[in-house]
Automatic annotation (TrEMBL):
A cellular-component GO term for this protein: plasma membrane
Compartments, as annotated in UniProt: Cell membrane
UniProt key word Metal-binding: no
Protein source organism: Odoribacter splanchnicus
Protein name according to UniProt: Oligosaccharide flippase family protein
Length: 168
């Protein structure tokens, strides 16, 4: 049991280390191709992302782990997953709709009038992250470490592609 826990911890940790390492490499690249003002906006938005994600996911991953661990049958686990994920999807889509409707005026209020598309991109990224939080938790709960890491690595590569695509 302890050996399995250590192996899974290492596997889950690898994807986090890769993500953080790549995020560590991005600032030197971005500061070379963006103006100081543009990069300042990006930095401000990066500060907001974890707080908004916290609100959108509402701790449902923890709730899912708690109740899925107590579930007696696979049907109960499925219902718990569907309920928690459905709520997160609904709240995330409402947030994205709000972002679509108000990203222009919000950019003016936040003093980012020159870069309103950054708010739209941030809203898109946050929505995708929030909606995928529960499926990732489900993979962990089901002890599917290799699938979790593969999907995380693909997600990181897609993120890098889109950063390059939208910035260049």
């Amino acid at each position: 049991m302890l050996k399995k826990l250590a192996a899974q911890t290492a596997i889950y940790g690898i994807s986090s280390i890769i993500a953080r390492f790549l995020n560590y490499l991005l600032p030197p690249y971005l500061t070379r191709i963006m103006t100081t003002g543009e990069y300042g906006v990006v930095t401000d938005l990066y500060v907001l992302i974890p707080f908004i994600l916290l609100l959108l996911t509402m701790g449902m991953e923890t709730g899912y782990f708690h109740f899925a661990g107590k579930a007696g049958t696979s049907e109960e686990k499925r219902l718990i997953f569907q309920t928690t994920w459905g709520i997160v999807i609904l709240v995330s889509l409402l947030f994205f709709g709000f972002t679509l409707l108000f990203f222009q005026p919000l950019s003016v209020v936040m003093d980012y009038a020159g870069t309103p598309s950054y708010l739209l991109l941030m809203g898109s990224i946050i929505t995708v992250d929030a909606v995928t939080a529960l499926p990732f938790a489900k993979l962990r709960e089901e002890n599917k470490a290799s699938a979790y890491v593969k999907i995380r690595v693909v997600t990181i590569l897609v993120n890098l592609f889109f950063v390059s695509f939208f910035i260049l």
